[in-house]
């Protein structure tokens, strides 16, 4: 079974994301903040979670960005998807993509698409089209 970690302090978003990925055959684990997410990955090993879906801003001392930086430093090499409300504004998308492109994030998901149940996965490449099905991402990676 494929393992996925959701790191988000918002129950509603975490539930919707969990349901989406469970339908794709993932075993879901959830962390409420970056600290617990970091501990889940390091505690189970860097290869345990093939995918991490995280919020960037959480009401905690360790938010998603800090967690990701530490995980990459420690050797995590899975797929990282960031679900963000700040990415929901169309004019913010290119800026957000440029900002996150060099730090190992693979895809951005506007939380408005999470709420609608029709997730869009925006690759980091600036002019790439959004992918509407995570299976398309799986087929283009070593997970296939």
Fraction in helix: 25-40%
Count helical runs: 6
Shape: globular
Give the H and E element order: EHEHEHEHEHEH
For the sheet with most strands, the description reads:
6 strands, mixed
Short description:
The chain is α/β, with parallel strands linked by helices and 144 residues long. The protein is 39% helix and 19% strand.
Describe this structure in words.
The protein is α/β, with parallel strands linked by helices. It has a single domain (2-139), classed as Response regulator (Rossmann fold). The chain has helices spanning 11-23, 34-44, 64-74, 92-100, 111-116, 134-139; strands at 2-7, 26-31, 51-54, 79-84, 107-110, 122-123. Strands 2-1-3-4-5-6 form a 6-stranded mixed beta sheet. Helix 2 packs parallel to helix 3 (64-74). The longest helix has 13 residues, at 11-23.
List the helices and strands and how they pair.
Elements: E1 2-7, H1 11-23, E2 26-31, H2 34-44, E3 51-54, H3 64-74, E4 79-84, H4 92-100, E5 107-110, H5 111-116, E6 122-123, H6 134-139
Parallel strand pairs: 1-2, 1-3, 3-4, 4-5
Antiparallel strand pairs: 5-6
Helix pairs in contact: 2-3
What structural keywords apply?
19% strand; 144 residues; single chain; globular; Rossmann fold; 6 strands; 6 helices; 6-stranded mixed β-sheet; 39% helix; alpha/beta
């Amino acid at each position: 079974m494929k393992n996925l970690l959701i790191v988000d302090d918002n129950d509603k978003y975490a539930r919707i994301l969990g349901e989406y990925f469970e339908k794709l055959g993932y075993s879901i684990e959830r962390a409420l903040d970056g600290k617990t997410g970091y501990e889940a990955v390091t505690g189970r090993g860097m290869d345990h979670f093939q995918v991490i879906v995280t919020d960037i801003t959480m009401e905690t001392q360790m938010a998603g960005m800090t967690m990701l930086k530490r995980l990459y430093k420690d050797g995590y090499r899975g797929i990282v998807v960031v679900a963000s409300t700040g990415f929901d504004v169309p004019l913010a998308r290119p800026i957000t993509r440029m900002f996150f492109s060099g730090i190992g994030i693979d895809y951005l998901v506007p939380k408005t698409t999470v709420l609608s149940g029709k997730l869009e996965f925006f690759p980091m490449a600036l002019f790439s089209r959004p992918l509407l099905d995570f299976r398309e991402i799986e087929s283009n990676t070593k997970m296939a």
